[in-house]
């Protein structure tokens, strides 16, 4: 497993990162997911669908995937679609990338990379 990052024991546990619209991100922050350390910055990125550039979304995604204190990244599926190439290219087991629906955009299983990989492993279409 050379080159693959593994979860190591970490004092204080691991974090969940969120890349989402304002409603989604606010919901997770109210649930206690938020963290903002001077050494790492925050573990959330709010996307304004009309104003946030795709490059900023990609930068946040790449920053979260490189952090060793993040075990899961939750991203609204319609936002993941904007950076689909970057999301698909990321194939490390940690952090796990989970695409979630938003209030205005329902979940589409045909676009979910993890579900596609599982179907490929099981040999189903």
From TrEMBL:
<dbReference type="GO" id="GO:0033180">
    <property type="term" value="C:proton-transporting V-type ATPase, V1 domain"/>
</dbReference>
<protein>
    <recommendedName>
        <fullName>V-type proton ATPase subunit F</fullName>
    </recommendedName>
</protein>
<comment type="subunit">
    <text>V-ATPase is a heteromultimeric enzyme made up of two complexes: the ATP-hydrolytic V1 complex and the proton translocation V0 complex.</text>
</comment>
<dbReference type="Pfam" id="PF01990">
    <property type="entry name" value="ATP-synt_F"/>
</dbReference>
<keyword id="KW-0375">Hydrogen ion transport</keyword>
<keyword id="KW-0813">Transport</keyword>
<dbReference type="InterPro" id="IPR005772">
    <property type="entry name" value="ATPase_V1-cplx_fsu_euk"/>
</dbReference>
<keyword id="KW-0406">Ion transport</keyword>
<dbReference type="GO" id="GO:0046961">
    <property type="term" value="F:proton-transporting ATPase activity, rotational mechanism"/>
</dbReference>
<dbReference type="InterPro" id="IPR036906">
    <property type="entry name" value="ATPase_V1_fsu_sf"/>
</dbReference>
<comment type="similarity">
    <text>Belongs to the V-ATPase F subunit family.</text>
</comment>
<comment type="function">
    <text>Subunit of the V1 complex of vacuolar(H+)-ATPase (V-ATPase), a multisubunit enzyme composed of a peripheral complex (V1) that hydrolyzes ATP and a membrane integral complex (V0) that translocates protons. V-ATPase is responsible for acidifying and maintaining the pH of intracellular compartments.</text>
</comment>
<dbReference type="InterPro" id="IPR008218">
    <property type="entry name" value="ATPase_V1-cplx_f_g_su"/>
</dbReference>
């Amino acid at each position: 497993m050379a080159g693959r990052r593994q979860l190591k024991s970490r004092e204080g546990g691991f974090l969940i990162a969120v890349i989402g619209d304002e409603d989604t991100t606010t919901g997770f922050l109210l649930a206690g997911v938020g963290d903002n350390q001077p050494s790492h910055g925050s573990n959330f990125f709010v996307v304004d669908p009309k104003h946030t550039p795709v490059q900023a979304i990609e930068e946040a995604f790449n920053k979260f995937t490189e952090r060793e204190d993040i075990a899961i990244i939750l991203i609204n599926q319609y936002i993941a679609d904007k950076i689909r190439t970057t999301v698909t290219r990321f194939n490390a087991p940690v952090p796990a990338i989970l695409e979630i629906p938003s209030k205005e955009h329902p979940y589409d299983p045909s676009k979910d990379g993890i579900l596609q990989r599982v179907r490929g492993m099981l040999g189903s279409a």
